[in-house]
Amino acid sequence: MKKVIAIAVVAASVGVASAQDKIVIDGSTTVGPIAKAFAEYFMAAHSEVNVTVSESGSGNGAKGLLNGTCDVGDMSRPMKDGEFKACAEKGIQPVAHVVALDGLPILVHPSNPVKDLTVEQVRKIYLGEITNWKEVGGPDMAIVSISRDTNSGTYETFEGMVMNKQKIHEGCEYVGSNGAVRQRVQSTPAAIGYAGLGFVDKTVKALKVNGVFPSAETVQSGEYPIARPLFMYTNGYPKLGTPLYQFITIYLSEDGQEMVEEKGFIPVTAY
Questions:
Q1: Residues whose CB is less than 8 angstroms from the CB of residue 94 and which lie 6 or more positions away in sequence, other chains included
Q2: I want to staple 195 with a disulfide (CB 3.0 to 4.6 A). Which of 140, 199, 254, 260 is the partner?
Q3: Please, what CATH class does the domain formed by 105-221 belong to?
Q4: What pLDDT tens digit does each residue of the chain (271 aa) get?
C-alpha cells in the first residue's frame, strides 16, 4: 500500500513566481524519508507549492516519470536500459540526481549471537543452502529469511551485489518496505533481512559483512561490500529557478546534507 505525506498549503504565495504549484514525488521506500524531509523543508520556505511524496517502490518511480504522473521518480537503483528506452520512445529524458549514498546492512534479531557473515554465507542463506543458524556459528534455529519485494530497488541491489542474479529460495518471505523488513526481523528471533542504512535502530542488529561493519564511514570509503547511490530522477534537467529546480538541488545545500545524515544516509557532498 502506498504511503503518502501531504502538507496542506496554508499561506499566500511568497517568493517563487511560477505556474507550478505542486511537485509530485513517487518511488523508492528507501529514498522516501529523504524526500519527505526535503518536502517539509521546501514547503516551509515556499508555502505556495504543495509537495506530495508517495512510496510505492523504485519500479513505480520509473513508471511514474514515464507516464507523467510524477515530477520526481525516487529510485534506490539506477534506471534500467528498458526503462530508459521506454522513456525515450515517449520523449521523456530521465536525468539522474544522486542525492545520497546508502549501505545495505544485513539485519538479525538482537538476541542472535552471530556477529559476522561473508557475502557468500548470506547468498547461501538466501539460496536455501544454509538453513540453520548453527551452520554459521549461531543457535540451533531454522533461519527465517526476509526479502524486499521484487519491485524494489533494494531487492535489485541485493540481487545483483549478493545473489549474483541467482534465484532466492522459494521459502523466503517478501515484504513491501524497508520498515516492514525491520519489523519482521525485530519480532522474529530466527530472522535475517536486509534494508537501507537509515532503517537500522536498536530494535535490530546489523552484522559485519566480510568483517566490515556497515556505517557512513565504511560505505563512503568503499570498504563495506554492499553499498549503492540513491537517486531522484526528473524529466530533463529542471529549468533554473523553477520550484522543481529549487527542490531537486536541496541535497547540494548544507541543510540538505544535514537532513540526509539525520535520516541515516550519507551525503554526496560536504561543506
A1: 62, 65, 73, 79, 83, 84, 87, 233, 234, 235
A2: 199
A3: alpha beta
A4: 333 333 333 333 333 334 469 999 999 999 999 999 999 999 999 999 999 999 999 999 999 999 999 999 999 999 999 999 999 999 999 999 999 999 999 999 999 999 999 999 999 999 999 999 999 999 999 999 999 999 899 999 999 999 998 999 999 999 999 999 999 999 999 999 999 999 999 999 999 999 999 999 999 899 999 999 999 999 999 999 999 999 999 999 999 999 999 999 999 986 6
Question: Is domain 3-7+14-101+229-262 annotated with CATH 3.40.190.10?
Answer: yes
- Calculate ∠ Cα 20-242-13, nearest 5°: 55
User: Does the predicted TM-score (pTM) go above 0.85?
Assistant: no
